[in-house]
Amino acid sequence: MGVSESGILWGGRGTEPEAVDRFYSVIPAGGIGSRLWPLSRAAAPKFLHDLTGSGQTLLRDTWNRLAPISGPHRIMVVTGRAHRAAVEEQLPELTDENVVLESEGKDSSAAIGLAAAILQKREPGVIIGSFAADHVINDNRRFRQSVVEAIAAADAGYIATIGITPTEPAIGFGYIKCGEPIDVPGAPDALAVEGFVEKPSLSTARKYVAAGTYLWNAGMFIARADRLLEQLGKTQPELLAGLLELADAWDTPRRGAVVDQVWPNLTKIAIDYSVAEPSAKEGLLAVIPGDFAWDDVGDFGSLAKLQSGGRKSDLAILGENARVLADSSSGIVVSETGRLISLIGVDNIVVVDTADALLVTTSEHAQRVKAVVDALKLSGRTDVL
Ligand SMILES: Nc1nc2c(ncn2[C@@H]2O[C@H](COP(=O)(O)OP(=O)(O)O[C@H]3O[C@H](CO)[C@@H](O)[C@H](O)[C@@H]3O)[C@@H](O)[C@H]2O)c(=O)[nH]1
């Protein structure tokens, strides 16, 4: 362990991190995971499911991963009002002051920015790390080491992120172009970021993967709260003003009235566009290459891969009461009903059986499930969403 000038404790490479002073974890739990429909629903989004077979929801797994870093009393969850009860059931340790309930999702800049503004007001100088509620990470110890390095980079003034070596030209991720090592005490693996491109086209993603100098952005941002807000204000001054107004009123009796007035007008924009891309252009983004397996389990193709340990020939079966008869078939079956499902001679199949909706597709087409959800929305069939 070491102590930086500002008093932050860190654990460098090879040391086991301890709860880090002045650090707050933030878990933005929004979105419905529409490419995992009909398993993931508005009422039960992806983060409320056990997709790994750990016996715990992804949200609980995320909490358990972060608690040793920030301490369990320093984890803030930002989620929709509708999910309050489910989140509290999953996280009984979560105190009221650490829950931010949104009347309406306003995208990640607002969710993470509001957490930063509230925490900065309560504790000036705090460092925050934002981590999705619904990702899968296979090695919590290595993950923690990367986060502790990212905290050291944040303490030095960077917006830090954790990058993952790409395995395919995915178009749903941000790409980080790695530069030279930067000299930050406590962050021996930190690299400068030469560029950040959110969700490039397939041809660009192919070039990035072939170049070998790009990492996937895993959606983890670690920064001093004041620095994050400063960066946000450069590109989104109105959004920042709204968030600061909310934060000012948050711990006062004025909260309800200010929320009613300010919330509807907050600009919807992803933090990747409002903070990450512009910070990279200014040389303020740093990346710690993550030395662990990471998956955002974005669609049933990824889920099948995750469940079968990457073996294409296997059939993964999810669901406590699943009853499946399979002959010469591979892919994934998710059963919520317990209805008997038989498969004969089908490869890379995806079958998701729920009480009111059945999905049949293939791993290759799994990304297109979002189009079904969009069509259902358009036709007003929100009862099955
Ligand atoms: N509370 C709350 N959280 C939100 C909201 N909108 C987004 N989030 C949360 O912010 C995170 C990122 O939002 P997504 O909308 O899921 O982003 P994405 O398209 O998957 O892309 C991001 O993640 C990728 C990795 O999974 C990155 O590769 C990419 O660059 C980007 O950061 C997720 O944890 C999501 O729950 C919101 O309105 N409210």
TrEMBL record:
Stretches assigned to the Nucleotidyl transferase domain: 26-307
InterPro entries for this protein: GMPP_N, ManC/GMP-like_b-helix, Mannose-6P_isomerase_type2, NTP_transferase_dom, Nucleotide-diphossugar_trans
Gene3D superfamilies: Spore Coat Polysaccharide Biosynthesis Protein SpsA, Chain A
Domain MannoseP isomerase/GMP-like beta-helix residue range list: 324-376
The name this protein goes by in its record: Mannose-1-phosphate guanyltransferase
